[in-house]
Please model this.
Amino acid sequence: MLTKIVFTLAVIGLVILVVRFRGRPARAPAPQKKPGSPWVKGLALGVVGIMLAGSALTLWLFWRDAHQVMQVRIIDSRSGRVSEYQAYRGSVQEHSFETVDGRQVHLAATERMEVVGE
Model:
């Protein structure tokens, strides 16, 4: 209920502001200022360049880490059978992963996963 009242008052206030400013004559455009000094522009371009280089470096490092090939060993705790796969680090999840050759592997509740970097 309170929100309806506040919303209604806000709409009324907005309508009053629109009606009040609609009748005013337009102002003359402000005089143009002189362009900033060259060192400020150079500093701004330098900061933007550093930010872009840092972003590109961060993206490349994340991509490189996600595409690192890992040796994944699956051990069945009932039978003791061991299966080995290769997977990218970015595709290894808690209970599943995708191998380098594109196979999807999902672990059963009785299986254990060991991951070793190469």
